[in-house]
Amino acid sequence: MSLIPFDDRDGFIWIDGEMQPWRDAKIHVLSHGLHYASSVFEGERIYDNKIFKSRKHSARLIKSADILGMEVPLSVDEIEDIKRDLIEANKITDGYIRPVAWRGCEEMGISSRGTKTHVAIACWEWGRYYDEQKREKGITMRTSEWRKPAANNAPTQSKAAGLYVIGSMSKHAAEDKGFDDALMLDYRGLVAEGSSANIFVVQDGVLKTPIPDCFLNGITRQTVIQLAKDLNIPFEEARIKPEDLHNVQEVFLTGTAAEVTAVGKIDDISFTVGPVTRQLRDAYESLVRT
Ligand code: PMP
Is the whole-model pTM more than 0.85? Predict the structure, then answer.
């Protein structure tokens, strides 16, 4: 990971209608989004100058905001144009792009109807989330004490900043114990996802993934399910209990940042980086660059 702070770089950031020099893209400390987590964001990957599934991400940003009662003052087409200009202005070939929308300073307090929705988009060169060695052996995960809330306890289908509080805490707790990532169970105690990626398992040749009823149905998740169907890999959405992990042979994560990442270990259970994971990882790698 780069040690250059994210506010001290060269380039341009689009903010509220203007392409600003990177270091000038600032907001006021009394922004509602900072105090009350009235903020939604996207994470997208750029491959060969082009964003993979760009329109889906733009649509999800608008939907995430809408779920929180915020109106993004831009259409999908307008967001697409801004992202294209921004990638060109920053000369990004392979990287990451981060749109964010938040409530501004016009009001402070729980009631925030008077606030405007502000939008910024930044992008930077970026490579793999995990290094080659980890990719080969599979990453390690530790089950978090925090549980993903039910759909009537949090806006779970929004990529809302506030939902990431337990993700960060869980990842830190995992890293403190020498693991790479956290496995999040849901409020029922079922396997849900990683800290920022969906999870799949392979049991006796059948690909399985939890039903996304209290976490994001990731764009990568949907892409990998389609790839599995195209490759005639038996697939089902399933309720996966933590003890079921003793009976699976392969585990992998999917996410824009993580792409398809093999998992070698969850707590004290080991898995192989097996044929289904490799096949889907290769298929995903070639799809993102077509
Ligand atoms: N779950 C969480 C909590 C995430 O942050 C992400 C990354 N956006 C995902 C799943 C995977 O979503 P996607 O494939 O759309 O990146």
Answer: yes
